[in-house]
Amino acid sequence: MDPVTITTLAAPVPKLLIELLSSKDKRAVSTEAGFILETEPESIPRIRSLFDTTNSRLRSTWTLTIAMTVTLFALFVAMAVAAVVAGLGSGSTAYPIVFGGISASSLLTVILWKPYDKAFQATVTTQRLEMILIGLEEEWAASSSVGDPKVRSDRIRAANRAALKHMESLKP
Fold first, then answer.
1. 44-74 burial, b if ≥16 CB within 10 A, otherwise e?
2. Is-above-0.85 flag for pTM?
3. Which of 127, 158, 122, 111 minimizes the C-alpha distance to 25?
4. Fewest CB within 10 angstroms: 50, 94, 125, 159, which?
């Protein structure tokens, strides 16, 4: 896979990562990518490590999103049931209003926060990063058969730069 293809795959990644990662994580990924670009753009282990770390951060986002979705849904159901039970069991209207309000607010949170969209975006971004890494690994393998060390290093550096430029562009 040539640098142009890697660039095409990597183009939407910064926008997706900006939406999914915390400011601290974006800063860490951007700093690491910039450091690799400046100091050792042909470092295969460092680039692989950067992609693995970014994927790990995305998996954490995905896990948190799913956990929040399940929690909010459970809260919605529990508070709706509690509102009905409190309404039938007591003569007071305060308990049903409180429980119903909590239930409605949890439903409103799901509607506004859109956890399913975030989980889907995290999945797509993880797959894109894996495709970019596969493309890089193909280029690294193809470059290993080049006899001239300078040409081999230039090919690896060009492919790595194409991927790292997008990772470096993350701004919190």
1. eebbeebbeebbebbeebbeebeebbeebee
2. no
3. 122
4. 94
